Amino acid sequence: MGGTYDRKKRVRRLKKIIIGTIIALVVIPVIVSIILGIRVHSLQIEVKALQEELARVKLESEEETGVYTTGSVETSSREEVETVILEQEPKENYVQYEKLVYLTFDDGPSRNTNRILDILKENDVKATFFVVGKTDEESIKAYQRIVAEGHTLAMHSYSHKYSEIYESKESFAQDIKQLQEYLYRITGVWPRYYRFPGGSSNTVSRADMQELIAYLNESGITYFDWNVASGDAVSGQLSKETIVNNCITGLEGKRECMVLMHDASEKNSTVEALPVIIEEIKGRGDAVFLPITDETVPVQHKMAKQ
Ligand SMILES: [Zn+2]
């Protein structure tokens, strides 16, 4: 009797062990999977955040170099954009000219603004300054001088911080209003032209670019991109010769030439290149320099993928 009891006991214990083992084999992997799953998910979120950050940083450096226009000698990893020039009759006043050249300076004012203004004055050339918001006394004088000397004072955002401007339509509108009202207070000119930081074809905006464009339209603001990139803002300085060459070759095949340059404190070679660019373009005999006005045909990018 005792032997049978022991056997039953052993069998029961064996059963327990087998069931326990099976449970362990099933349950442990499930728990491990769940833990790993959670970890993977949080890593994915981290990767996504890093990718977004990388895209923003990349664009900011590209925007500074102005590398992504069609017709430019430079290339970039960015999606190709085509430049749209809205159909318009040639201006009566300028029919004798083959090329209408708009020199545009982004990111100022800076300690180079006065040098640029001096050169423009010496050469009797009017240009356009897409400025950001600065409140120091030198900058205030620079905005005023731009206006006083007949150039176009245009907007390039108050903060120039992509993460803030492109956070939402509201933050975009708020930034523009701040700059527009500030410039008006300082100069008496109500600015109506805008250049998107990164261009209208930028890919970092969290807000829908079409909505931002609609906002500009509602507000009576016209935006301008560019179709000639001087390439002047690569980190480190581009040589004066390269800037001149980019600007001159960039004119080919275009009537409206919207030339992108930068008015930043470290862009000395742009300042050095400017008199040569003006001289060479004047030397063609078929071009006229113009500031942006209501008459100007907007040069606008659009994404090729649309
Ligand atoms: Zn800029």
Please explain how this structure is put together.
It contains 8 helices and 10 strands. It is α/β, with parallel strands linked by helices. It has a single domain, classed as Alpha-Beta Barrel (TIM Barrel), CATH 3.20.20.370. α7 (240-250) packs parallel to α8. The longest helix is centred in the N-terminal third of the chain and has 64 residues, at 2-65. The protein is elongated, with a radius of gyration of 30 Å. It binds zinc ion (ZN). Zinc ion is lined by residues 63, 106-107, 156, 160, 197.
Shape: elongated
Main β-sheet description: 6 strands, parallel
CATH fold-type name: TIM Barrel
Helix content: 40-55%
What would CATH call the architecture? Alpha-Beta Barrel
Order of helix and strand elements from N to C terminus: HEEHEHEHHEHEEHEHEE
What structural category characterises the helix and strand content? alpha/beta
As for the number of domains, it is: 1
State the end-to-end distance: 88 Å
CATH H-level superfamily title: Glycoside hydrolase/deacetylase
Number of strands: 10
pLDDT averaged over residues: 87
Could you tell me the strand content as a percent range?
A: 5-15%
How many H/I helical runs?
8
